[in-house]
Amino acid sequence: MLLSPPTQPILSVAGAHSVAKRAIETPLPVLGRTARPLFSMTTAYALRAAVYLGERAGGTQPSQRVAEVTHTPARYAARVLQLLTESGVAHSQRGPSGGFTLARPANEITLLEVVRAIEPVERIKCCPLHLAEHACELCPLHKLMDTVAAAAERTLGGVPLAGMMQQPLVP
């Protein structure tokens, strides 16, 4: 099956950002079904917010500013920052000069901590199809899928937020 080239070229940076955002949010067709990304948009927003807070170490950032800079809807940003605070990744300060900061230096917080603040990396412990003959002895396919999840955990756990601050994540 050949794929035809896109019918409309991307003409601007703003247009490219819009296309990229739609690509992230739009399910991909796979064999007549839709595939979902490995992590939710909420997790992507949380990672961007945490990196931004790391870049602004030492000063509190209001949720509205985090939303603006990370191109996150304001209510979504507020919820993401609340989850980061509840998990101990971020710290919140109330009042007129309040806002959010990282709870620890960016080199001490891993991407895995941020991801886990929003959603767990799903590991497969028992047969997800609930087949009695598999019970908690995974078949080769589910073992492989769990290996992929374990690799994602290792990779994310080995990258500190500071490692993401070396180049801009948000245009």
Q: Explain this structure to me?
A:
By secondary structure, the protein is mainly α. Helix content is 46%, strand content 8%. The chain is built from seven helices and four strands; from the N terminus they run αββαααββααα. It has helices spanning 13-25, 41-55, 63-70, 74-86, 111-118, 140-157, 161-164; strands spanning 28-30, 33-35, 90-93, 99-102. The strands form two sheets. The protein has a two-stranded antiparallel ribbon. Strands 3-4 form a two-stranded antiparallel sheet. The radius of gyration is 19 Å and the shape is elongated. Mean pLDDT is 79; it is low at 1-28.
Q: Note the overall shape.
A: elongated
- Beginning-to-end CA distance, first to last residue: 35 Å
Helix content: 40-55%
Mean pLDDT: 79
Brief overview:
The chain is mainly alpha-helical. It has helices at residues 13-25, 41-55, 63-70, 74-86, 111-118, 140-157, 161-164, and strands at 28-30, 33-35, 90-93, 99-102.
SSE inventory with pairings:
Blueprint: H1 13-25, E1 28-30, E2 33-35, H2 41-55, H3 63-70, H4 74-86, E3 90-93, E4 99-102, H5 111-118, H6 140-157, H7 161-164
Antiparallel strand pairs: 1-2, 3-4
Helix pairs in contact: 2-3, 2-4, 2-5, 3-4, 5-6
